[in-house]
Amino acid sequence: MRELLIMADFSPASILKLREAAGPDFQVDVLSPDSEPMLRYAAFRTAEVIIGEPSCEELELAPRLKWLQITWSGADRYTKDPAFPAGVTLTSATGAFGVTISEHVLAGLLTLCRHLPAYRSYQQRGVHRMAAPEKLLFGGTALILGTGDIGTQVARRLKAFGMTVVGVCRERRPLTPDFDEVRTLAEAESVLPLADVVVCCLPDTAATRGYFDRARLLRLKSDAILVNVGRGSLVVSDDLTAVLAEGHLYGAVLDVTDPEPLPKNHPLRRMRNVVLTPHVAGVSFAAEETERKITAICCDNLRRYRNGWSLRNQVDFHTGYRRR
What is the mean pLDDT of residues 169-198? Predict the structure, then answer.
């Protein structure tokens, strides 16, 4: 019998849906993170399909594997590994994270603009005074690098705050109501000085790695806010540290960094105008709505796989993006 191995942290209700989508032809095994080594070895040896995020070493134990469905949006763990098994189809959960990550972006921006950490400190100390003049999003320009699900959801929310939103994508695509303008990555350089907020939602690719170096950071407005919820490799951490220390930029919201995590004594950890979170903007199973969307994507792909149809969210190993 064909075997499906589930090794992600789905709820019992979601696992039931996955079993139903797999159908009677598949034996479904659920592998917990603390399962015994021999049990893990046996499960990988017979798996035709895996849902979850096995290590690249574990993939070497899966000679029958034909398809890996991950529950993340970013697939760079696998696209950067030359040992990823040839002939195995890789699909992502792109499309499930726009809501949760866009809300995280807003939380970070408002935390900086409204000086919430200072007021929290005042609350605890019994102080009653204004921290500093507040910065408004209204009327400003937001530059969003990445116009997929995450970037689109961010754009939709920032437009509701009265911002003009410019999207940046790899290749030119038709304008949608969520963006006032769309530029390609090659054209983004000219838009940097216009942005009050820059939100990075890009994956780790050769074209995006180190994009925000010192030169590009200095092209931003002196009171611009940089947000990174894509991959840490997009921003050169030492350059960002230096630019912030020099007083350029209003601040930064960083859910991802390079390296990740930052060293305990890294200066970015101590800067008052930096909101730093440990890569939690889009945790797969932290919110019920996100799990529901991931489950729906996996179930749809399971039905497609059973019927020999093209799978959703196939990853292009050459670009690191979803294959069109």
Answer: 93
- 27 token code pair: 């034996």
Out of 279, 303, 306, 312, which one is annotated catalytic?
279
- When pLDDT is cut at 50, 70 and 90, the band that residue 206 belongs to is confident
Does residue 317 fall inside a structural domain? no
* CATH number of the domain residue 26 falls in: 3.40.50.720
C-alpha 190/C-alpha 193 separation (Å) is 7
Instruction: Identify whether residues 237 and 267 lie together within a single domain.
Output: yes
Question: Which amino acid, one-letter code, is at 55?
Answer: S
What angle in degrees, to the nearest 10, is found between the helix axes of 288-307 and 98-113? Answer: 150
Rounded CA gap, 73 and 94, in Å?
Answer: 4
Question: Which member of 48, 53, 60, 260 is catalytic?
Answer: 260
pLDDT-based confidence at residue 322 (cuts at 50, 70, 90) = confident
Annotated active-site residue in 19, 40, 183, 231: 231
One domain for residues 13 and 107: no
The answer to whether residues 238 and 291 belong to one domain is no
20 has catalytic annotation? no
Domain assignment of residue 154, yes or no: yes
- Does one domain contain both 29 and 123? no
> Is there a domain that residue 267 lies in?
yes
Residue 226 domain boundaries: 98-276
Domain total for the chain? 2
Active site residue 279: yes
Task: Name the residue among 54, 320, 105, 53 with its Cα closest to residue 204.
Answer: 320
Torsion, CA 288, CA 289, CA 295, CA 301, rounded to 10: -170
Decide: pTM greater than 0.85: yes
C-alpha separations of 172 from 109, 156, 180, 188 in Å:
28, 19, 14, 12
**Domain shared by 267 and 293, yes or no:** no
Whether 231 is catalytic is yes
pLDDT single digits (tens) 216-235: 999 999 999 999 999 999 99
Residue 197 DSSP symbol:
E
Q: Does the residue 148 lie in any domain? A: yes
